[in-house]
Amino acid sequence: MNVVKRNNQPRCKKCNESKTNKKRDALRLLTAAFKQIEVDERRELSDADIIKIIQTQVKRRNDAATQYKDAGREDLLQIELDEIEIYTPYLPAQLDNEELSFLIHDIIIKVGATSLKDIGRVMGIATKELAGRVDGKRISECVKKLLG
Length: 148
Known about the structure:
The chain is mainly α. It has helices at 3-17, 21-41, 47-71, 74-87, 97-111, 119-129, 136-147.
């Protein structure tokens, strides 16, 4: 069982005692997301599943933050940004652009890709090899830059 999932309940309790409601609520949302998948699919979550769930939650918060910013709702924007800040430490370290370019370049050579027509083959391998360490959007941008 993943450390994040196992320690989530005690963290919620500690946040409740110290009156840090924002963190408590964010952790409860995470627990609910874990339980929903476990109940719906009737299986124990792996570490990869838990990381994927946290990434999904961060992505949802980023999307909501963008919409709130466009609408001029600074109060709601700050709530979303706070939740992102709470979730981010539970994710693996993200690759920087230089490391990403290096790894994508190796994949391009391995696949033998020469043009943008080969983007599907490169993306298929890259998303599997770099899962959890890089957002798919960043992978796509890097592949297009290197092939284009």
